[in-house]
Give the backbone structure.
Amino acid sequence: MNGIMDILINLLSFLWNITKVLIPIMIVIEIFKDAKLIDKISDFFYPVTKFFTLSKISGISLIFGMFFGLTLGAGAILQSVKDYNVDKRSVFLVAVFLSPCHAIFEDAFIMKAAGSNILPLLAARFISAIAATYIFSRAVKNNTTDVVNISNHEK
Amino acid sequence: MVTADTFKRGFKNGISTLIDLSKVLVPVYIGVELLAASGFLNTLAEIFRPVMSILGLPGEASLIIILGYFLGTYAGLGAIAAIDLNTVQITTIAIMLSISHSLISETAIVKKLGASAAASITVRVFFSFFMGFLYYRIFG
């Protein structure tokens, strides 16, 4: 067992490593939001949403959740469902994609501070998300009449 | 528009995330040290050694996975800091935990979207182990 002093030093240096990456990444995320970069790259993502047979508008929720995390992503999804009547199937597929792959930059940099390699981490999450969404997108048939306003289901 | 306020907000978010993280990470770190000192960690490690060895991890790592799955990444991080691991092992755990973490609270969010909780959990746990195993087999 380590001495109490060792435990404290280890803990503080660990927290300091995380601080060094966390604050810059949070600033970058805010810049992304304020510069409206999401809207600009959503066109670039059109082939991706097409591949997964998703509606185009759900692509924005996808990017949003991927960059900013599940909570914010879910907010964006609920909003887009209200505004554009996104079909239930697309929402389901976005949720499947985001389940293993959200807040990728924040998580990756925090894990890097803990001593992990960053590239295999990002690759593993992407491959998981793409494989899972692909499987479900072919398993769940495209049914355009299945338009459900999910905000009614909240209660 | 990117203004000075953007940077201020980013800095503030960074600090508040750091505080959230510390609130979980510090107690978990100390808790794991105590579990190690009491010998409980050894018992747990002994039980999970066969499963963990498939992933190239020591038995103690099972505690990190359990904490991460249920409590979240921050708790997992606290346990990572408290247990001796090499880079490949940390990366394996990081892959597993970043794919699958905070299963209770995040599955609640997924359900709120109207998507299936079972699908979300199945996908996450399956790919968590699959990708961890794959990484260890290729790079370990």
About this structure: Confidence is low (pLDDT under 50) at residues 144-155 of chain A. Chain A touches chain B through 58 residues (CB under 8 Å). Helices of chain A lie at 4-34, 37-42, 46-51, 58-68, 70-84, 88-98, 104-113, 118-139.
